[in-house]
Amino acid sequence: MRENNQLTPQDQKGVWRMFNSIAPYYDFLNHLLSLNIDRYWRRFAVDLLLAHSQERGIFLDLASGTGDVGLTILSRSDAKVVGVDPATKMLAIFKKKAEKKGLEERVFEVVGDGLSLPLSDSSVDGALIAFGIRNIPDRASALKEMERVVRPNGAVVVLEFSKPEGFFGLVYDLYFHRILPFLGRLISKDPSAYSYLPKTVEEFPPPPAFAHLMEQVGFLKVRYWRLTQGIVTCYLGIVS
Ligand SMILES: C[S@@+](CC[C@H](N)C(=O)[O-])C[C@H]1O[C@@H](n2cnc3c(N)ncnc32)[C@H](O)[C@@H]1O
After folding, report:
1. Is it the case that residue 5 has pLDDT exceeding 60?
2. Which CATH number fits the domain that encloses residue 180?
3. Which of the two ends of the chain, N or C, has the fewest CB atoms closer than 10 A to its terminal CB?
4. Does some domain include residue 62?
């Protein structure tokens, strides 16, 4: 199969098609390629969101995909979750997983775009986007949309890949740029998906720059935590 290295977040329809095509393999590959550490990253982000939320009625899981963040919120609180994602096949898996756990009454899966959320102003108590904002070309607008739908004093948490530094960074680079795309391509049979991942991480701003963007958008008390030697970074901002 020809490798398509050309897919970029600017080609949004192409990105959504790609996530639809890898949906059946997505969870398996996530856990395999991260050696299961992705579960810890999502738990960290969810606990941060819950710790900074006075009201815990309903949360937005933006770019929810197959729902691992939303389901973690449900398992760690009594809240409801609205999961928004443009990839219908990813959302269908979210729905199935919620039903299997008997949690379907607390979840709403909604097909939608982070750049124009199908939610009214101040309608949720907090929002989390995990490994999603990298896929949206206009990050400031996506952050503004989350700010719009979250109630004042609510929290917005962003979990995203970043680049580890030093010697570990060199070893990780080899894994991330060579081994991961090879395994991803082999298992998912999608020629572009797991080359798209390292390419978009490479292009994502470093943590201080992304935190600055959150401040520019208007979030208060912006902070970030580098997890697992900086493989991912978790950002927090409070809506004014
Ligand atoms: C890497 S997956 C992350 C899924 C999930 N949050 C997780 O933690 O596993 C990225 C998700 O972003 C979604 N996505 C891409 N463009 C988007 C957009 N414009 N608005 C919202 N979600 C988008 C994709 O469909 C995909 O499900």
Report:
1. no
2. 3.40.50.150
3. N
4. yes
Question: Does 202 fall in a domain?
Answer: yes
Residue 6 lies in a domain: no
**Owning domain of residue 95:** 12-238
Q: Locate tokens 């004093």: which residue? A: 153
Q: What is the C-alpha separation between 234 and 48, in angstroms, rounded?
A: 9
Distance 91 CA to ligand 1 centre (A): 10
Calculate how far, in angstroms, residue 167's C-alpha sits from the geometric centre of ligand 1: 31
pLDDT tens digits, residue range 162-194?
A: 999 888 988 888 888 888 888 888 888 777 777
**Residue 29: inside a domain, yes or no?**
yes
Span 29-86, pLDDT tens digits: 899 888 899 999 999 999 999 999 999 999 999 999 999 999 999 999 999 999 999 9
Number of domains into which the chain is organized: 1
Distance 19 CA to ligand 1 centre (A): 8
86-105: burial string, b at 16+ Cβ within 10 Å, e else = bbebbbebbbebbeeeebee
Within 6 A (CB) of ligand 1 lie: 12, 15-16, 19, 62-65, 68-69, 85-87, 90, 113-115, 130-132, 135-136
The answer to pTM > 0.90 is: yes
Among 10, 18, 19, the mutation site with the greatest number of ligand 1 atoms within 8 A of its Cβ is: 19
Strands 232-238 and 220-227, by their bridges, are antiparallel
Q: Cβ atoms within 10 A of the Cβ of 223, count?
A: 12
Quick check: helix, strand or coil at residue 84?
Answer: strand
Residue with CA closest to ligand 1 atom 13: 63
